[in-house]
Amino acid sequence: MFYTANQTIFSLDIQGVEDSEGAKLQVLAFDGIEAVNSEYIFEITLVSKHLRYDITKLLSKSAYLAFTPDKKQGIHGVILSVKRAAIGHDYSLFKLILSPKFYHLYNEVDQRAFVNQSVPEIISTVLSEKGYQQGDNMDFVFKFKEDYPKREFCCQYEETTAHFIHRLCEEEGINIFYQHSQTNHCMVLTDDNNYFPDLDNSFTYASDTGFVADHPVFKRFDVNLNSSTTEASYRNYNFENMKIPEGNAKGEQSNKANNAQEPSLEYYDYPQQHMNKARGDHYAKIQIERLKSFHVTAEGYTDIPELKSGYCFEIEGYPSLDSLDSADKWLTVQIYHQGRQPQVIEALGSEASAVQNTPSQLHKYYRHPINEGIQFPFDEEFKQGYRNVLVGTPKKTPHRPEALHPKSRVLGSQTAIVTGAAGEEIYCDEYGRIKILFHWDRINPQNENSSHWVRVASNWAHDGYGAVVIPRVGMEVKVDFLEGDIDNPIVTGAIHNGVNKVPYDLPANKTRSVFKTSSSKGGVGSNELRIEDKAGQEQIFVQSQKDYDQLTKNNHTVQVNNNSHLQVNNEHSETIKANRYQHQLAEEHHLTDLDRKTQVLMNDYKTVGIAEHNTIGTVKTTQAGMEIHLKSGLQTVIDGGLSLTLKAGGQHIVLNPAGIWMTMPVWTGGIPMEGTPAVSMPPLSKAGSVAATSAPVPRPLTAVQAQTMASDAPFCLECMLNAMGICATDFSNKTTPDAVLDTNSLNSSLGAPSFAGGLTDGLSSSMTGLTSGVSSLTSSMGNLTSMADMSSMANMTNIASLSNLTGSGLGSATSGITDGIANGSIAGSTLTEATPSFMGSEASPLSGISESLGSTTNTLQGLAKDPTQAIQQQATKAATDTAMQAVNSNETLKTATETVQQGADLANKAKQTQETLNNATTAATTLKTPDISSTTTGFNPNGGNNV
């Protein structure tokens, strides 16, 4: 016994309560439990001589329970509960519960979310909001070795604040214990055993032999070895790379000699939130240390009042039986205190004994399971003094809190409001995640800081394709929770409400299925897809607020069984890179209010089955670069109204109410020009399926020819020179950009002064040569006709005969005509040009003579150049075609002969007309065509409109 029997050992100092000596509260007995990672609870029985003591002033007061008379050892806390236990003859008995201030937080349940904060930051925020001060010897203090990353989202949900803080500490492996002074208690949060303080003194082990020691000792100290898990593994899913990081950790074997006997046991859990590979290893390490914390334990029975949970002690005199007993220091993880001093109410007699033996209420208030080692080893009744029983673990064994505070699971779904930055209607990240604010969150602002980025579910999602609809700010969305975890929400839908109403009134439009968006920002328009299923009114409606783009990478087929309407309020453009086929089974109506411009870069084919009617309000102009060919099966009627004008070759015919006017008399005979036949290209046929004869591609016009076409000149000088075998470019002015003909050079070359003098002789000579050539040609054609039989030309002998015939007959004919043309072609052409101004209507035969000369000369020159080679190249077909043409052209040759004769007569008449010759000389020199209005016809026809 360390104190005298009547000495008061235990005392209770209540802050702010000062009683008179008669009313002073004295400690009769106490029982208390304290443990690392738990809130201590002490049940104190008090006695007072004041029969009507006011207990209401005690509740929530700070108090210090001293274990020793000097008050150096004891527990500080707040009064959690007060109870009037009994009233005696001269005394009143009370029972009160002393606990740390933190215990009050078990009475607070909250729901809130923390965004981008670490666990220490979250705990500091919560405690600071409750008025706790942080720092040494204050209300709480952090002593950490690890750095704690920020958690994207961490919620306190349907749990007390004390439960929430304990849960966070357990998840991160943070221990909680308390340090006490006479005026305060401080909650210490630490993640390393080195921050558990060592007691200054070592303590002696003395087995309980029945003798009373003169100082506090360990009376019993039992060491236990327990089997435990050997490995911990965690898994989680990382959606950013679709990988599954794992965390692993293995614990050290306690008894290396018996490794073979200890089984390999794994703790595996999924998912572990807030982790990557490094954090996964960290959490696995914490878990295996948690499971190993009680692998080795010691149970002690002492009367040492200095022992407290969270403090480390040394024990002396304890026999070391094996390596487990040789731990240098032990950490008190749980301890049960008892104190009795009945001397304060000896006058109560048996009533005092009854009060002391009242069952303890500690288990009612203690929040953690009490370790089985917390029990006193003796059955005898403890009557006076102090004693404790404890559970300790080696200090060198990392201690981690047990997982006694599980996270609340969310049952079912919730809704939340989509949030975002100010001014934003759609707020998301590259993954389509959004920010939300839960209805129960009273603290976070309704902006981009209301939550972490929350994933949004879709009905289809893959790499680069799927469905994406981003919920917009202000929408109410349906939120589910993966694994029921409040910290892992996922948006799975959107919900209309009284503010965000449906697009169309319900139930009036209940048959409509609608997907309608709103233009952002501003919401002044929308895109919409609407499906109407009401019987008889079925419809699919599509609206594009601005652009509507379609892309079909292969075929695009549209079938409309009734009407189709297209309205374009501005321009309509189509580009088709291949063929276009359109089949109109009925009428086609087309109305263009303004101009219509059509350009076909190649051929244009048009086939009308019955009739084509064109009505033009004022003017129709048609221009062809080479040829216009009109042909009808029965008749062609050209109705000019008041006037009809035909112009060609420098001549014209005018029909008007005054009569028929022409520049030359009408001549019979001649050879009609063959136009290019029309080609029928049926529509709706594949390209190339219809054999069409393409019109010959004309040679581009030269600069002089283009100028002549654009002027009123009756003929082209360059074309005339080319027809005579003279290269027009020899007389072009090389200094001018258009390379026009140099008339001075041309006159000098032609010998203009002597040109008129030899006009008649040249023309007569040409007529003689032509007549001779025609006779020879007629003879040759007769021979060719006799060889028209294809079978007689199938061998080389006949081909050789034909070659000889051509060389003699055609050669002779060509030679004669060529000589005549060489002497008189210039004169004939020049005479034709000059005569319209001076010879009146009699000049027409000269034009026919000139045309006959040019046509016949070109044909014969082509045959005479190299007849043998031509026949060999064209073989049978060419010879046959030539023979047939000769037969068919017999009448034409006769007509040409008559024309030549008429030309000769006119030539004789020209010799006698000196005025005509002089004028012809002038015309040949100037190479100019006089104005038709100056001729004897006296009529200037309407030249029409140039295109």
UniProtKB/TrEMBL annotation:
Residues 513-621 form the Gp5/Type VI secretion system Vgr C-terminal trimerisation domain. InterPro entries: Gp5/Vgr_OB (IPR006531), Gp5_Vgr_C (IPR054030), T6SS_RhsGE_Vgr_subset (IPR017847), T6SS_Vgr_RhsGE (IPR006533), Vgr_OB-fold_dom_sf (IPR037026). Residues 432-496 form the Gp5/Type VI secretion system Vgr protein OB-fold domain. Residues 847-861 have a biased composition (Polar residues). It holds the Pfam family Phage_base_V. Residues 836-861 are annotated as: Disordered. Belongs to the VgrG protein family. This is Type VI secretion system tip protein VgrG. It comes from Entomomonas moraniae. The gene is tssI.
